Amino acid sequence: MYYAGIYMLAAHQKQAAKKDTADEALLVAENIGFTIRGKTILSDVSLKLHAREIITLIGPNGAGKTSLIRILLGLSHATSGSVKRLHDLRIGYVPQKIHVPDVMPLRVIDFLKVSGNCDPGACQKMLHEVECEYLLNSPMQSISGGEMQRVLLARALLKKPQLLVLDEPASGMDIIGQQSLYETIKNIRNKHGCGILMVSHDLHLVMAATDRVICLNIHICCTGHPDDVSEHPEYLKLFGDAIEGLALYSHHHDHEHDLQGNIVVSEHCNSCEHNSR
Amino acid sequence: MMDAFVADTFVIYALAAGMALALVAGPLGSVVVWRRMAYFGDTLAHAALLGVALAVAVEQLPMTGVVLIGVLIAVVLFWLEKQRELSTDTLLGILSHSALALGLIVLSLIQSQGFNVNLMSYLFGDLLAVNQFDLVVMYGTAFIILLAFSRLLPSLISISVNEELARVDGIAVEKVRFIFMILLALVIAVALKVVGILLITALLIIPAATARLYSKSPRQMVVLSVFISAAAIVLGLYSSLGWDLPAGPAIVVSASCLFFVSRIFVR
After folding, report:
1. Preferred mutation among B169, B173, B176 to probe A, highest tally of A CBs within 10 A
2. On the CB side of B92, how many CA atoms lie within 13 Å of its CA?
3. B34 touching chain A per CB within 8 A
4. Who has the most CB within 10 Å: A151, B33, B174, B210?
5. How does strand A219-224 pair with strand A212-217?
6. pLDDT (tens digit, 9 = 90+) per residue, A194-241?
7. How much is the pLDDT for A275?
8. Is there a contact between A105 and B217 if contact means CB atoms under 8 Å apart?
9. How close A1 comes to chain B (CA, Å)?
10. Are the CB atoms for B189 and B69 separated by under 8 Å?
11. Is A104 on the interface with B (CB under 8 A)?
């Protein structure tokens, strides 16, 4: 934390020069390096996240995605480089999954209340927004993986975050669940106006809901608009084989399932093609 | 049988002391159960003997010694946990037994110096010897514990659910954990006269575990555990007086009975 102070002095002078750009960045990371026991996890990673921007971090296993996220969140400290967050930045964090010990009696409503210091009405409304209102009084230990993701999302949103950080939000979901989750995430930006940083493996699904993709493999391989990145040689080198080998099954559904598995007929499905974008 | 002892002040004092302990042991015990800190409670309790021995040696209140040694244990544990090579239960094993052994050594030293220490009363409590001064100290301590605990509870629940989420939320996890350890040391000091060093952890764990069976939310568990501890203490004291049993162990056995009866009949 001392570095922050020193850094801010330096940053102050820089800011005088280009104040406008510094003002709107929620988070600036510069030349992040991270080594554990001599092994390089991250090297020279710089990124800047602006308000209302959706950035997706992709990369193979072991690329350092989770380490980078943890450093940006302040959960671990970079070996070198600096992270600068907007003063009093409100961050909503959605981890991959959490395990609530069985020994803790904890309903979804308690979980939401305790983390947000919110009244039950606000919690209920937020659960409604992530389409999980029926979970209000369920014990946290009894909900499914997909439901957990949405509850964690609701919890993060209750803090009225300026920045939402999601670590593989759709891991372990089927393709329909993933699509609907990314749809929810896209709506969140529009509705809550927060910047979003997410880690994802679901290349195609994510691409459509993203402003900027960062392709990470220890260092940043390439970055840019999804369409550009998907044709970038570095990206193809990392994922090319996987993409070719992945024959996408695009097809129509005449109904959808809600989270409880009930069939719902949706107008969306009647009117448009279900291409996996 | 009732009439014979109900009016006696020592019974009323004993009951009052028990209630002071119930007020704090239940709530803090709930957090101990959530955070799997039973072994830490045991360590504090073992170290309490060293605290008592040292306090007697310098002619201070045993409670003061217990609290100070508890703080010391918390500080050393924090420092050791930073090294990461060894897990917490191993570290606690080292601390617990070192403190106990040291306590026994100091105790034998001061006994050879001519100090009269009734070891049994510290090991198993001496509820029926509680006096007015003890009560004032116990309720004063209990009040401080409850005040701090009620302010700390949301953070404690938060870090018990998930420490990383709590950290991102801006909760100073280390600070909360440390304050909680200090509060536990204070509870042990309150419990010293009631159930004694060897059985203190039981009163933290058993009523909270029983309350878990009936609770749907964390706060419910905290509140229920107070009533269950109180019931165990009343039952224990009653059977102790009725059948001439040692009070501390009788209280713990009552708590266990409540637990097993609940376990069999709930769900």
Report:
1. B169
2. 16
3. yes
4. B210
5. antiparallel
6. 888 888 876 666 666 788 888 888 888 877 777 777 677 777 776 665
7. 41
8. yes
9. 14
10. no
11. yes
Residue A17 has pLDDT above 60, yes or no: no
On whether any CB of chain B is under 8 Å from the CB of A98, the answer is: yes
Specify the CATH number for the domain of residue A45. 3.40.50.300
Residue by residue, DSSP assigns A134-158 as: GGTTSBGGGS-HHHHHHHHHHHHHH
Pick from A54, A20, A7, A74: which is nearest to A163 by CA? A54
Q: In which residue are the tokens 């800190």 written?
A: B37
Contacts of A248 by beta carbon, 8 Å cutoff, 6+ apart? A204, A276
Given CA atoms B122, B125, B126, B130 in this order, what sign does their dihedral have?
positive
B157 touches chain A (CB under 8 A): yes
Report the alpha-carbon distance of residue A220 to residue A216 in Å, rounded.
5
Domain count, chain A: 1
- Give the model's pLDDT for residue B4: 52
Within a domain: A210: yes
DSSP assignments along A80-147, one per residue:
EEEEEE-TT--EEEE-S-----TTS--BHHHHHHHHHT--HHHHHHHHHHTT-GGGTTSBGGGS-HHH
**Contact between B168 and A73 using a beta-carbon 8 Å cutoff:** yes
Count of structural domains within chain B: 1
ipTM above 0.85, yes or no: no
Is the CB of residue A106 less than 8 Å away from at least one CB of chain B? yes
Domain carrying residue B190: 2-265
**Stretch A259-267: mean pLDDT:** 59
Specify if A37 maps to a domain: yes
8 Å CB contact of B218 and A110: yes
Contact B162/A95, CB-based, under 8 Å?
yes
The CATH number of the domain where B61 resides is what?
A: 1.10.3470.10
Its domain, for residue A239, covers 2-90+161-271
The alpha carbon of residue A257 is apart from the nearest alpha carbon of chain B, in Å, by 30
* A100 contacts on B by Cβ (under 8 Å): 161-162
Cross-chain Cβ contact B220/A101 below 8 Å: no
Q: Do A107 and B216 touch (CB under 8 A)?
A: yes
